[in-house]
Batch of 4 targets.
Target 1
Amino acid sequence: MKKSRCESQALFNLSKRPLLIVISGPSGAGKDAVLTKMRGEGFPLEHIVTVTTRPKRDKERNNVDYHFTSMERFQEMIERQELLEWANVYGNWYGVPKAAVKQALDKGQDVVVKVDIQGAATIKKILPQAVFIFLVPPSMEELTLRLKQRHTESSADLDLRTKACEEEIKQLSLFDYVIVNKQDEIDLAVAEIRAIITAEKCRVTPREIAL
C-alpha cells in the first residue's frame, strides 16, 4: 500500500532531526586527530570549539583548535551560564559553549563536541539523547607512547595521565559506542564514526535533542 504524501513527509522530517555527537576518551586517544580528519573529509557536522584556560601548544590555532581564554573570562562564562558543561582537567579548565550548540541544533545541523570523561557525564545528565562515543587506544603501552611523542608532558604528568586513563576506561558504561583508534589507522576510526552516524539516522525512533 502506498504511503500518503503526509506520511512520506513525516518520515522525511524524522530523518532530518539533528544529532548531538559527544566524542570523549582519555588523553592520548587521538580525539583531536580524528576530528581534524573528519573536518578534512567534509563531514556535514557543526564542530563546536571548546573553550580552555590552558596555554596554547605549538601548531595549535586559536578559535580553531580551542578558544583560548583567561581564567577570569572563563569564570565569567560560568556565572553567565554560557557553558553547556565545564570541568577542571589536569589543572586547566575546559568548557563547551552552550549558544553554539543550541544555534546549530535549532538550524537542524548535526553537532559534534569533544569533551573529557567528566564533561561527557555532565552532558549525559542534561541531554541523555545525545550520541556518546568513547575513543580509546588499543593498549596502555601505545597510549603512553603517544603521550611521550607529544613532548608536552613531564614524567610526572605522564604518570598522572596514564593512571587517569585506567580510571576513565571504567566509565565505559556511560557511552553508546566504543572505537579503538589504532596508530596509523585513523581512517578506520573515522569510517566507524561515519557508520555510527548513518545507523543513528536510520533509527525508527529518532533521538530528540532539546536544549
Target 2
Amino acid sequence: MAAVKRLSYQDETYWGRPVPGFGPADARVLIVGLAPAAHGGNRTGRMFTGDRSGDVLFAALHRAGYASQPTAVRIGDGLELTDLRVTAPVHCAPPDNKPTPDELRTCAAYLARELELLDGTVRVAITLGAIGWQALLRSLAEGGWLIPRPRPVFGHGTEIELHHPDGRRLWVLGCYHVSQQNTFTGRLTPAMVDAVLVRATELATGH
C-alpha cells in the first residue's frame, strides 16, 4: 500500500509496514480502532496520525485530558498520551480501508498481545466501529474472559461489563468510528465522542 502515494505526499517516504499500537503500557483506557489508513498511519507510522480520522480523535482525546495536544501530524510532533493506549485489530492498511477476514485472523495475535501488555491495568476498552467490537470480544473470549451469550451487538453508546474467572473486570464501550463517512455526515459528532470518553474516564477512575 506504500507504493501508491497521494499526490500531496509524493515527496514523502511512506512507512509502509505494520503500524504498532502506541501509548503507555500501563494505561487504564484502550482504544481499538480498525486499521491504519492508506495515507494516514500507513504513511506516518503511527495510528490515526496524519489523516482526518485522527484529526477528530486526537482533538477529542485532548479535550478529555488523554492527549498532550489536539493534533497528530507525524512521529516526533510532540504528541504524548496519558493513561490511554491506541491499537487496532489490523496493523497494515487494508484494501479500501476494510480488513478482510483473513487479515483479521492474521493480526489477531497482535491484539491479544496488546491485551496481555495491559493486563492488570486496563479498565475500559473503547471500540471504534463494529469490526473492532467483534475483534476485541473474540480476542477476549480466547483469553478466557466470560462473554455473554448471545454475544453483545455493537452500537454507539453500548457498554458491557465483562468478568474474568480470576476476578478481573473490564468495561467495553462502543463508539462509531471517527471516519469521514461518519463525521462528515453528522452520524458522529464531537459531542458524541466526548460523551464516550467522559464515560470511559468515569469507569476507569471509579468516579
Target 3
Amino acid sequence: MTTSALDRLVESLAGTVAVQDDRVVVKDEERLPDRMNGLAYEAVFSDAESKAAARWLIWEIAQALGIRPASIHELYMARGEGRCGCQFTVPAINLRMMSFDAARAVFRAARKLNAGALIFEIARSEMSYTDQRPAEYASSVLAAAIKESYRGPVFIQGDHFQAAAKKYTADPAAEMKAIYALIVEAIAAGFYNIDIDTSTLVDLSKPTLEEQQRLNFELCAQFTQFIRECEPQGVTISVGGEIGEVGGKNSTPEDLHAFMRGYNQSKGDVAGISKISIQTGTSHGGVILPDGTLANVAIDFDTLKKLSAMARKEYGMGGAVQHGASTLPEAAFSKFVEADACEVHLATAFQTLVMEHEATPEPLRQEMHEWLRVNAASERKPSDTDAQFFYKARKKAIGPFKEHFWTLPQKARDAIGASLEKQFTFLFEQLAVGGTTDLVAQFVHAPEIHQPAPGGGVKVVKGESVEGLAD
C-alpha cells in the first residue's frame, strides 16, 4: 500500500500528534514545537499533495491547541463604544519574506510583552510578487505560533483588497469578480479580517464630495455584503474601508462624512466596517533619495486624531487606520497612540531588515540585483540611481528568491530572527499593545473551526498582474 502524504507527515511528527476521525489529537505538546520547521517548509515548498496535507495538519493542530484565526471586529466595536479602558494602536504586520521565521519573531515579542492585539496581514499585490497565496501565508503564521508555544486568537488580515483603477475602468465586472474570488479564497484560509480598498476609484473631478466618493462607498458596501454571506458561523469578519488613497490627497472630516453616509445607506442591515483607513501624508515604502536614504515624511497627526475620534464617536468604529508607517523615524510611533489611531500598517522596514542584514550573504544580494536588472528593467526611470532603483524594485525579487531565504543557514536565520524580534518588541512597546492579551480574551471569542481532511493537492491559483495595486 502506498503511503499517503498525510501519513508520511504524521510520521515525521514522531508521535506528537495522531489523526482520528479526520481530527488531529495532540499527544505530546511539549515535543511538538521541535517538529514544526519541517512541516512549515512542506506547506510552502513541497509537491501539491504534501502541501495540502501539511497545511491541513498545521490548521488542525492549531485548533487543537487553542491557536485560532479570529476576527478583531468585536474588540474594535468595544473600542468605538469606549469599553476598552486603555489606549493603544494595533500593529498590522505585513510579512513579505521568511514568513515562518518572521512570524516566530512576532510571537516571541508578543509573549515577552503579553501582547495579544496584533495583526498579520498581506496585501493583494504582495500575494503576487512574494508568491504567497492566503493558505500558504496562514499556514506559515499558524506554524510559527505552534513553534513558539503561543496560545490564543491569531488575527490574519487581507490588506488592500484593492480595486485597480485601470482594470476597473477597462472591465468593471472582471475586476469585481477577481476581488470576490480573492475574498472567498482568503476566508477559506482563515483571513477573518479584510480591508477593502476601493479608494482608488475616488474621482476628485466630481463637483461634490458625495459624487467623488460614490463608487468607493457603493463598492465597499457591496463587498461588505458579500463578506457577510461568506463568513463562517460564529465569526463576524472585521471589514475595513478606506477614504483616501495612500500617497494621494490628505483626508478630511468632510471626506469621512461623505463616505460613511453613502456607505451606511448602501450596505443595508448587515454589520458594517469596524475601521477606516485615511491618508495623512505617508506613502508605501517611503520616498528614496538618490543616495539611498529615505526622505523625511511629515504625518498630519492632528488629522489622524480628529478623524479617529470622529470614526468612534459618530460612527461607532474602532477608529482610523494609518498606512505606510514602517519607514518612519522611531520617535514617530508613540505618536500614533497619542493620536488614538486604531491600527497602523507596517511592511517595508521588515523587508529592508532582511535584505540588508549582515547575515544575508552578499552573493545572494548581488544575484538578486542582477535578476532585477534584467527582469525589472522597465521600472527603472532614467533619473534613478542604482540605490533608488534597487530599493523600489527589489520587492519584485522576493517571490523568485523565496526559497533562498527560507533555506539560509540556521545561524543566519537565527540572527535575522533575533533582529526582527528586537524591532517587533520596540514597535509593540511604542504602540502600547503590551498587556493586551487579557483585553483580547475579554472581547474576542474565536470559535473552533475545522477544515475537511485533504483529498488531493492544493488548488493552484493563477497569478495576476499587480500593476497599479498598492502594497
Target 4
Amino acid sequence: MLYSFFQGLLFGLPFVFVVGPALFAILQTSMSKGFYSGMQIAIGISCSDLLLMLFCYFGFIQYIQSNTFQIILGFVGTVFLALYGIYMFGKKTVTSHPARKDIKLKVNWMGAFSEVLKGFFLNIMNPFLWVLWFAIVSSNTGNRKPIEAVLFILGIVCMIFSTDMLKSFFANKLTKLLSDKVILIINKVAGVILMICSFALCVKTCYEFHIIPFPHYIDNLPGL
C-alpha cells in the first residue's frame, strides 16, 4: 500500500513546476502577509485538489461534468480571478513586519479560514483542472484497490502541498530583504498576472465549448 503512496508522490512531482494563478497567489500572499497566510492558501488549494480527485475516483464527477456546469464554472472562475487581480493591483498598503502578522494569524481563526477559502476557490474554479484530475485519476487508479487508490491520490496531494509550503517559506524569507515599495510593485504585478489568467480562462472556456466562433487560424495557437 505504501508503494501506491510513493507512486503518488512521484506522480505529483511535475506539478511542482506548474505556473498558474495558484502559484502567484501563494507567493504574493506569503510576501505581503507572511508565511502562515501563504500556508493557509496552500491548504485551501490542496483541499480542492483532494476533493476533485476523490470525486473523480468515486464517480461523482459524472454528475457535474456536463458542458453547462463546466461553462458556468469557467465564467465564475473568470470573474473570481479578475476581482482578485483587481484587488491586488489596487492594494495600497503592505505589512511592514510579516513576522508579527504571522503571530496574529495563528490565533485569528476567521482570518485563517478566509485565506483557506481563497485558495480553495481560486483552484477549484478552473474547469480544466477538473478535466486534468479526471484523466490522471481514471488512468492510474483503475487496477488498484480502493485503499491503494486513495493512498495514490494522497501521495499527489502531499507532494503538491509540501512544495507549496516551501514556496511560501522562501517567498516570505525573500520579503525580509525587500522594501515595502518593492512588495507593492510585486502586488501590482501579481494582480496583472491574475487578470491575464482570468482573460485566458474566459477565452479558453469560450473556445473549448464553442460559445464564440473563433477564426480557423486560432487552432494553431500554442495551448489551444
